[in-house]
Description:
mainly alpha
Amino acid sequence: MKHMNSEVKEERTSNKKRIDLFLVPIVLIAAFLNLFKIWTDEYANAYYTAAVKSMLQSFHNFFYASFDPGGYVTIDKPPVVFWIQTISAKIFGFYGWSVILPQALAGIGSVLLLYVLVKRTFGVWAGRFAALAMALTPIVPAVSRTNNIDSMLVFTLLVATWMLFRAVRTAKFGWVLAAFAMIGVAFNMKMLQAYMVLPAFYVFYVVATKITWKKKIAFLTTATALMLAVSVSWAVVVDSTSADKRPYMGSSQTNSVLELAFGYNGINRLTGNTSVTGSGHKQPAQTEQQTASSETKQTSNSSADSSQSSNQRKSSSSQKMQAPGGGNQNGMFNTGNPGPFRLFQKGLSDQISWLLPFVIFSIVGLFAGVKFKGPYTTKQKESLFWLAWLLPVAVFFSIAGFFHQYYLIMLAPPIAAFAGAGAVALWSMYKQHNGWKSWLLPGGILTTAALQVYIMSPYVSSIGVAPIAGVGALGVILALVLAVRKQRKNSLTNYLGAAAMVVLLAMPAYWAMTPIIYGGNSMLPSAGPDSSSGMGGPPSTATNSKQSGFNGMQPPGSSSGNSSSNGGQMPGGSSNNGQMQPPSSSSNSGQMQMPGGSSNNSQMPNSFSSKSSSSKRKSGGMNAEVNQKLLNYLTKNNTGEKYLFATTDSTSAAPYIIKTGKPVMAMGGFSGSDPILTVSKLKAMIKKGEVKYFYLSGMGKGGQSDVITWIKDNSKEIPSSKWQSTSSSAQQGPSGNGTLYEITLK
């Protein structure tokens, strides 16, 4: 107990010291990478931005995280992050940057938290290097510059980690409860993904606390019960509310939050089985590919500056993408094929794996000489915590059937922590000539430089040969010189060690800047010279300058000379040949215009104006545009209906919700396959005067086939000349060339 009290006093004394001046530039780097030019992103991820617009309009929409102002369907995630985004929009106004700001600040906060966590045990230089490694891990700023959830999730889990470490140091059970309750809060951000850190929490508490096994079991059981209670609190309230008094739970098949948590956002991510039940039933692999199509098609038109990105976002129109485990070496969304070396494959390695070899050497050094039965030092205990975070998460991403590149941010904290702690530990072993351990530092530098050359090699056409050769040559030279100078102690050796760390961080730093340099993508964020495409992986060579998007798909109400040959795709459907195609390059892809004007019932200032310029980017993807002629027609002919119009999926609905703040019905939810509507329910809505216009594309029908067939059989087709735009600003879009229908029932 005296030891515990001395640690607390030491912590208080340390907190009173002046700010670490070396930390200041690290924080400034993180701030630059996370915040610079986020104000140019007008739409962010339009699916989530539309939800914030809806949540601003009523507490009902706010509590349930309704996608549309009418409270028809929710988004496919829990509400906590979107509550924060909505509060931000309420304070600063409804803009793209205001919904991104919380995540950007969370990214900076994660850098600071990692510094605090590592510094206390491993030393100030370990904390500094860990914070810098976290800031420069490419996927961290790429995600933090969007309104996706993962940056806030990682920050929350690091807060929980700080609480757990404090619980062990102070021997206070209250901090244990707080730590596990915080994981419950994180569950209400992204469901089961928050539980990926639980092995680390359990292992660390068992190993690090000096209490009886009886107390350990009792404390952990109580803390786990609290975590579960917090986790399901919102779900229980929602699922126990009558279905007719709340929105449908988006992307679930039974209108249940718990089913969403353990199905679509849970086990199905591991197995890759996203099959749909009911009338829209499909085989798992097929449905997964169709879901990929609906998500990926929204990503092709993002760019910070069209003149910069036109040479960077060249993707082959003939390149095929298949589900993970399929024939394509890059896998779905360039997440590679499952296997033990998946994190070293294209598309994943350049997002997260730059320092992995050094981390492996660091783990060897930190655990060298450790006996299974202990006793363990504080450094070894905390190293065990980071290892128990790293390994299960790495195993998941190595075998998972379905995930996106930006989920890899979950690996950033343990990698950065080991990079910082390991750099100091390996340097100490090297300087002390500690037998075979002294070879770990040059070995780690050499193998890490080799991996970085491998990571960059597919991008030689984008970044040139010089950076690749430079990293390789310097890595080899510095590793060899350090090996030769092992017996010498002078300042030159210190400079060589510092230079080696700079070399190993140089290309991750460049990769972390690519969302700023080339433009990011808020729908499927990733880093790299082709970051604006949202597809990750190396750029391909074939281009088609006259086409953008998947198979030339068009927005609601647009027309194109080649639309008839494409046939279009249903959100959630597949292309004509059964394969997905990546976005083709287009010199005009960053120039999409959105008509301006504020909605009469909008509660916040609307930044989505017609005064679009090249300095503004629409990284919400192809869904971030509105056909003004269609909007004018629907507004003029609305006779009091609740919904401006109904469409198949969220892709078509989101821009109109953002633009007007009016309800637009996404009949099948995000991908168009949610079994929300029945023919009888739709008839009742039409008779009550809730909806009369329907925009349908010539695409597959997903889980709404009966409803769509009934609409076509019982409606009047509106001549395209009344609502279809032919302007160049609406030539590239998300939903295919479709038809507008009107239904009135008495």
